[in-house]
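Chapter review: from sequence to fold.
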Amino acid sequence: MVRKINPVLSNFWVLGLWIWMIAGVACTGGDAPNGTEISSSQLVTTTDTATPMDLSGLPSMPSRWLTSAYFDRAMGVQGARFQVVSFSQLVGQEQGKFDAVLLNCFDDYQGIVAIADIRKYNLQLATRLELPATFKKPDWLNPLMIIVPEGGTPVPFQERFLTANIRELRLVRLRDYYAPIDRIGQGMAGLPSFKDNCLFCHSLMGIGGNKGVPLLPAYDVSTGEDRARFQRDFSGFHHPASSQNLQQFVDESALEDILDFLKRVADASRSQ
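The token string follows.
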């Protein structure tokens, strides 16, 4: 089940949040501003009365500036700073039947993070970024963005904890969201690797993001030739010097597991 943003207000929410986030990125070495001015009219309150997720208080939530070794490692940068609010505080204490937050982004990326992980890792939401002047910022690196703070419980090194460019939050149930691919990929090593790193850009069986092309129409993973092409394309696009460095999360063994999982999905689709 998914609790949606009020569709009557969604256009105003997107426009207001976009203006706010453009203003929230800086490449500077100076002192951080004291705060970010955000009008409550730029945010909306969801309408599911059973499990409300009220976003109208986000602009007035307590904020602080911090650094993130997790971010620096992933992006190959030093000295980045973020003005953040508590993701746990935003989500609240009880969400009933919902156990995850879906993160829809401006570039059709779709992240998802378990509420248990938000609390366990003390995840933050960046409303403003301050990046070194020498850093070449990727187009997608804009607030809202998940930030892993310093210290605390070690966080798995995965793409999901770097979701940025967020335009909309929705509460979902993990079991329902992942159901189509869980039924097919149960027990396969490639299933969690695909969930943790690939599904955000490459939709599969009706779920996930659409920033990248759907992989199964693009590759016939049952053939050695296309599997090799898949691996070449992955290395060519997601290499360490790129702005989409997925190789740091997915090694050769994990990539083979993902291909095996995709083959099972493709075989299941053909048999229907």
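Two observations follow directly from the output. The longest helix spans residues 252-271. Confidence is low (pLDDT under 50) at residues 1-22, 28-52.
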